[in-house]
Automatic annotation (TrEMBL):
Gene3D superfamilies on file: YVTN repeat-like/Quinoprotein amine dehydrogenase
A GO term, aspect molecular function: 6-phosphogluconolactonase activity
Similarity field: Belongs to the cycloisomerase 2 family.
Protein name: 6-phosphogluconolactonase
PANTHER family given in the database record: 6-PHOSPHOGLUCONOLACTONASE (PTHR30344:SF1), 6-PHOSPHOGLUCONOLACTONASE-RELATED (PTHR30344)
Native source organism of the sequence: Pinguiococcus pyrenoidosus
InterPro entries, sorted: Cycloisomerase_2, Lactonase_7-beta_prop, WD40, WD40/YVTN_repeat-like_dom_sf
C-alpha cells in the first residue's frame, strides 16, 4: 500500500536548486542530514570546494514537517568563544542516542600541507536544539597516549545504542579503516582507542574486503557492526564487545559469493546500509551497474548475514529472467527506515526522487509502494524523523 501521508522525509540535494523538503530550504552543496529523537530539530552539513563548509540547524513543525532555519555554524567561525574546526569536507552528521551531542565526519581537513580526515563534536541544547562547538580529532593527532589513525578519508559515523562508543569508517584506497572511539556521555568528547585497517589481523584472521568503505552501522542490540564497501562490493561483519567497544572481524560477503544457497548480487557500488529496528534484516543500497537494494537476513545471535533477495532496477526481486519491471532506485545514495520498520526510503540522486518501499514485518521482503519527486535534484542523503511523522 501507499506510505502514510503523515510521513515526512527530509532529503538534501547536491545539484542546482538544492533543497531540503518538506518546504524547500535553499542550501549550498548539502551532504548529509539527521533529525533529533523528539523530531523537533533537523541538522544538515554542507561542504563545497569554495571553502563554504557549514552545519545548519532547523526547527521542525511537528504537524506539517516544515523546516525553519535557526542557525548556521561555519568552519573557522566563532562558537561561544571557540573557533570551529573540522567542517571542511563534511560528509556525515549523527546525533548521540541521548540527543546531547552531535558528531560530524569530514574527509578533506586541510592542516596547511596535508589533507586528511577528522571528527568534530558539538554539545546540543535539548530544549531549543542549539549547538556549540566542543572539539575536533584529526588523523595523526596525539590523543591521550595514542596517535589517531584510520581517519584518512573519514566517510561515515555511527554511535552505539548505549552511547558509549563511536565508530568511523574511512574511504581511502589502501588505508580504509574502521576506527573506535570512547565517548564521554557528559561532555561528548571522544577519545581514540583503536583502528582496524584492511589487511590487519583481527580475531585470528586477516580483515579483507574493506576497500572503499562507504558506511558503518551498529545493530539495534549493539552486538554487531556492519561496514559496506564500494570497491570490494561487500559488506563486512564485526563482533562488538559491549564493555570495551572493541571489534573483532567475523566475516565478509562479496558480490558474486555463494551464500545461503544463492549467489550474492546487488553489492556492486554499495553506498549505504541500515538494520531493521527489530534487528532481523540488513538492507544495502548500491548504485553501480543495475542499481540495487539488497536484503540480508541477520542472525540475531551471531550477527552473520544470509543473502535473501535483491530489487534491481528493471527486475523484480532479483529474478534476472523476470519480465515484470520494477522502477528501483537508479542512483541509490542513502537509505533510511521508519521507526516502526514498515517502510524503507531510498534517496535517488540520478532520478531526483525518493523511492518508498513497504516492508513485510515477518519476512523483511520489500515492494515498491510509491515515489516522491519535486525539489529533489541530486537527492543523495535521507533521514526519517524519529517520531515517525
Amino acid at each position: 500500500g501507499e506510505a502514510p501521508s503523515s510521513t515526512f522525509v527530509f532529503v538534501n540535494a547536491s545539484r542546482e536548486n538544492d533543497a531540503v523538503p518538506v518546504e524547500p530550504v535553499s542550501l549550498k552543496t548539502p551532504a548529509d542530514v539527521t533529525a533529533s529523537a523528539d523530531g523537533k530539530h533537523v541538522y544538515v552539513v554542507a561542504s563545497s570546494d569554495s571553502d563554504d563548509h557549514t552545519l545548519s540547524a532547523f526547527s521542525r513543525d511537528s504537524v506539517s514537517g516544515a523546516l525553519a532555519l535557526t542557525s548556521v555554524i561555519t568552519d573557522g567561525g566563532n562558537s561561544y568563544g571557540r573557533t570551529v574546526d573540522g567542517l571542511s569536507g563534511a560528509n556525515c552528521v549523527t546525533l548521540s542516542p541521548d540527543g546531547k551531542h552531535l558528531y560530524v565526519t569530514a574527509d578533506r581537513y586541510d592542516n596547511g600541507s596535508t589533507k586528511t580526515g577528522a571528527v568534530s563534536f558539538y554539545s546540543r541544547d535539548l530544549l531549543d536544539g542549539a549547538l556549540s562547538f566542543v572539539g575536533v580529532i584529526r588523523n595523526g593527532d596525539s590523543n591521550g597516549n595514542r596517535t589517531v589513525n584510520g581517519l584518512d578519508g573519514a566517510r561515515s559515523l555511527a554511535v552505539t545504542p548505549d552511547g558509549r562508543h563511536v565508530y568511523v569508517v574511512a574511504y581511502s584506497r589502501g588505508k580504509d579503516a574502521v576506527s573506535l572511539f570512547s565517548r564521554d556521555t557528559t561532555s561528548g568528547v571522544l577519545a581514540f582507542l583503536s583502528a582496524i585497517q584492511n589487511g590487519n589481523q583481527s580475531n585470528d584472521q586477516a580483515v579483507e574486503g574493506m576497500d572503499g568503505a562507504t558506511s558503518v552501522n551498529v545493530s539495534p542490540d549493539g552486538s554487531h557492526v556492519y561496514v559496506t564497501t564500494f570497491y570490494n562490493a561487500s559488506i563486512l561483519v564485526f563482533l562488538r564487545n559491549s564493555a570495551s567497544g572493541a571489534l573483532a572481524f567475523d566475516s565478509v560477503l562479496r558480490d558474486g559469493d555463494l551464500n545461503n544457497g544463492k549467489v550474492v548480487n546487488g553489492l556492486e557500488g554499495a553506498s549505504s546500509a541500515v538494520c531493521s529496528p527489530d534487528g532481523r534484516q540488513v538492507y544495502v543500497a548500491a548504485w553501480a551497474r543495475n542499481h540495487t537494494l539488497s536484503v540480508f537476513v541477520r542472525n540475531s545471535t551471531s550477527g552473520t548475514l544470509a543473502f535473501d533477495s535483491v530489487v534491481r532496477d528493471g527486475v523484480r526481486d532479483g529474478d534476472r529472467d523476470s519480465s515484470e519491471a520494477v522502477d528501483a532506485p537508479n542512483g541509490a545514495g542513502s537509505i533510511s527506515i521508519s521507526p516502526d520498520g514498515r517502510y524503507l526510503y531510498v534517496a535517488d540522486y540520478r532520478e531526483d526522487k525518493v523511492s518508498v518501499f513497504s516492508r513485510d514485518l515477518v519476512s523483511g521482503a520489500l515492494s515498491l509502494a510509491s515515489e516522491v519527486t519535486g525539489a529533489l535534484d541530486g537527492a543523495h542523503s535521507i533521514t526519517v524523523s524519529p517520531d515517525g511523522k
